[in-house]
């Protein structure tokens, strides 16, 4: 099956239309007619070659929402006509401790990324900036009614990336959660933590997006460029979700944690960070990291979002606006996620 | 009350006999006739001036076991004749969130250290290398029968320092715990984790103390000087207790943690450590720190040790051997804790 897509032909080159081949629908596969594909910052890192050589041409996109148009003989989880989603992975070994424990993203043989990865059959995966995709049914999520399709797409990466650590470290009533950075990930963290019942504070470089932050569910909003923020909020938070991938003064942020508090990075700066161990010992604090989430947890997150009627804040674009959108993502000029309407690819 | 003690007269000077004044027994105070005082590495750091200027002369010692010989009018928790212990703190505000939560060591006004600290009445505290000490009854622990007095003394610091993170991060049956370094702290971590039912592995620079480690309760013993250790044990542990205060290759040790695993430092190197955030994100891992433990938890630890009939491995010395003992601690030539028999001070 040959389908329209948008691909980066080489590292750092603008994306352009391409026709790619999708595999035959296997016994456990689902064919999805894609409706929306979110643009994640990691799409840009990948096609720019920031994360090493890639199997170009690369069709990015791992925030996919669409409708099932065909299923394999063994598929029972999904039916033709269902609205479904695909996130950052499309396969894993299914047998290791981590896969069996529901953490397929930590598959000991390596999860298979939704694009630019080698699938278990040896083929190269291609992502969601496309009209159709064929995915193993076990890695396909149900997108419940009650979430707009475009608003649902970013949940498959930005949503689960922030939902997983909020759940793992117990965000909920009586807990004080800070979110560092109000971008694609940060705005989801604010919405989710608020919906979980936590008291939410945004820590952003400036107060530029303060009004937005409060509208999205934050109780407080502070500028990290103001040194008094770090005095005023000392030892305050149970959990800090750091969505910023740039280097930060880790010790300063750790000082904002109460006893037993945890600072979780969901992004990783390319260079190592420096940490003064006294910042941890002085409050039995933890510095942690978290990467997306397993399939079952991703489904739980989608159901949670439907129940709480929340989705991402999106700006829907046509496929031919993708290069411009990349520029704007790099300039932090998006509130808060671009989503490609893939019907513009036909 | 004037009592015999051993003090460092100035930074880096050998300890020598001194006579010090102990305060009158107040309404909530307990007078303790000291029997044993353990020698902790931090005693040496303090008197050497490694941790900044000190109020010399300094009588070190925060691993104290003795017998109550007098109580104040309001004391109900302890009686004359009871065997008791004093650890790293002798006071705190008692009113802040952390004190009320049982974490007096994280008192927001600052806990009062057992020596070289300013007590809430403005006097300077003096530690356990002494025949007697007067301590607020709320900071005095009961030492249950069934633990030898000398073996109990190090529990008040080395014991609680390792017990607290083992409890906080769930050491127990089905959990794999590694202990980095087999010294005063490490040997207690091995004994305690084993008694809690965890599978225990020692990670030591060499295999020199392997026989000891296995005798103390370790199931496995590996040399960290052998690079294959880090391959062989990759992603293995739920919890790593790092008792080594020197710089370590944090990323290498984080690679030994399973998904959701935690590496806890109980010592702090003076310079910051470098951490590659991918080491954490790649397994939803945490890097944490922990400092001693609250009074209630310290009592729980002593009761646990009595129940499991365990204490520290000690070498009992006379007070006039303390300078020699300091040299041997610095040379890691002690298995595993020196304890001063304070009856040699009279």
TrEMBL record, chains A, B:
Q: Name one GO molecular function term.
A: alcohol dehydrogenase (NADP+) activity
Check the record and name the PROSITE patterns matching this protein.
ADH_ZINC
* Domain spans labelled Enoyl reductase (ER): 12-340
Per its record, the protein catalyses: a primary alcohol + NADP(+) = an aldehyde + NADPH + H(+)
Q: Which superkingdom does the taxonomy of this entry point to?
A: Bacteria
* Cofactor(s) in the UniProt record: Zn(2+)
Q: Which UniProt keywords apply?
A: Metal-binding, Oxidoreductase, Zinc
Q: What InterPro entries does this protein's entry cite?
A: ADH-like_C (IPR013149), ADH-like_N (IPR013154), ADH_Zn_CS (IPR002328), CAD-like (IPR047109), ER (IPR020843), GroES-like_sf (IPR011032), NAD(P)-bd_dom_sf (IPR036291)
Top-tier EC class: oxidoreductase
Q: What is its EC number?
A: 1.1.1.2
Give the family per the record: Belongs to the zinc-containing alcohol dehydrogenase family.
* Protein name according to UniProt: alcohol dehydrogenase (NADP(+))
* Species in which this protein is naturally found: Humibacillus xanthopallidus
